[in-house]
Amino acid sequence: MMQEPIVVQPALAAERFVLRPLRRSDAGLIAMYSSDKRIAEGTRTIPHPLPPGATEAFIARSLAEGRAQDVWVMDGSEQGHAEVLGLVSLTWMERAQSEIKYWVAPAFWNTGYASEAVSAIVAANPHQARTLFAEVFQDNPGSARVLTNSGFEYLGDAEAFSVARGATAPTWTYLRKMA
What we know:
The protein is α+β, with helices and mostly antiparallel strands.
């Protein structure tokens, strides 16, 4: 049985930014970043090229009651950084499990922001999950390091379809048991 979604999504503190719920006003920056082919091809679901209205539809789904996932913006504006550095999400699964996904805008790659975001989600465990899962495409070893540095263990190889790639690509799957 799936856990009930959080109605009011909490803001979570990281060292250099705040993870806060999406706002409709984030659409412009999210669209700019997610229209980058490198971001889109690192995900299963972001199309490339990004069609008009796709970001607004994503935000509307992410803010709806009864949504399937919680999405947080990595917001560095309080520390003098960009308002949108990237996104991190948790999707509900069965048996008190959730799947974490994330991306960081290319301008902020290799800054540790993804590691901070994943660590903040793990520490807060807002879904009160017993297990967190994650997958990364095998041509993205940086995202794999983010997971292993946050206590995720390699589970196995698989493959997943990427809309932007228009193809199935090999993935690595990870899990983290929560206390």
